Structures are given as C-alpha cells and as structure tokens.
Amino acid sequence: MDALSITANIIALLQLTGSVLDYLKDFKDASKDRFRLMGELSGLKCLLSLLETRVNESKAGDPWLDNTVRVLDDPNGLLDQFKSDLARLASKLGGGGAVKAFVKKMTWSFEKTEIKDLLSKIERVKTLVLLALANDHL
User: Fold this and answer.
1) Half-sphere exposure at residue 100, Cβ-oriented, CA atoms within 13 angstroms
2) pLDDT tens-digit profile of 62-117?
3) Neighbours of 117 (CB within 10 A)
4) What is the rounded CA–CA span in Å between residue 15 and residue 4?
5) Closest CA to 31 of 90, 114, 123
6) Structural domain of 130
7) Is residue 116 classed as helix, strand or coil in its secondary structure?
8) What is the rounded distance in angstroms from the CA atom of residue 64 to the CA atom of residue 55?
9) pLDDT tens for residues 5-21?
C-alpha cells in the first residue's frame, strides 16, 4: 500500500469537504438541514485529518496501512463514491458563473430526501474512518 496515494485521496476529500462547507456558509435563510449538513461535514473533516496524520506517520509494511487503509482506498470504494457525491454537491452549490452562484446563494433548493441521503452517506464514511482509526490502536 502506498501511503502517498491514500494521503493524496484523503487530501482531495478534505479539500472537497472544505469547499462544500464554504458554499454552505454562503446560503442565507436556509433550512436547519444546512446546519446539520455543516456539522456532519465538519466532523468528517476532523476525522479525515486524523486519518491523514496517521497515514503519514505510518511506515512501509505497517499492517494497519496495508490492510485497513487499503480497504478505504479501494477504487470505486466508499471513499471514492463519497468523493463523487461531494463533487456533485459542490458543483450544485457553487458551480457556474457569477450570476448562477448569486442565485444559488439566495435559494436553498434541496429536498429533505436528498439531504437525508447525503447525511446517511456522511455517517457511513465517518463510521469507516473511525473504525480504521480504532483498528490502528488495537
């Protein structure tokens, strides 16, 4: 397992999470869903930062890195899928020209089911990262 590739993927996920958080902060008069989404993403960002630090501290041949983290970094795995979901959300929240971005800041156009699905995905990713970190301590 190459620690550099998992670190790069974690950094990309951290950057996307930060972008989405920035976009969410710009919305005015959004529902309480926005605040819940911001809280969950902030928690995930902290966990991903911890994971990145631990991966960077790992040495080649570390069983935790080779076994546990490899599962997180699988192509088309949960982290990859979540990265795609987050990229779509970032594009929906802040993509487009200046006028489109301004209009988006003025309206919250997400349905409850859409937010519920995203919150569920965030919770799954947080659980996996927590399990990976806990496995390191074992």
Assistant:
1) 7
2) 888 888 888 888 888 888 888 988 888 888 776 555 545 554 555 566 777 888 88
3) 12
4) 16
5) 114
6) 3-137
7) helix
8) 9
9) 888 888 999 998 988 88
d(CA 53, CA 30): 34
Percent helix, percent strand, percent coil in the chain, to nearest 5: 80, 0, 20
Distance CA 118, CA 89 (A): 9
Is pTM beyond 0.85? Reply is: no
Distances (CA, A) of 90 to 49, 72, 86, 95: 20, 22, 6, 7
Counting the structural domains of the chain, the total is: 1
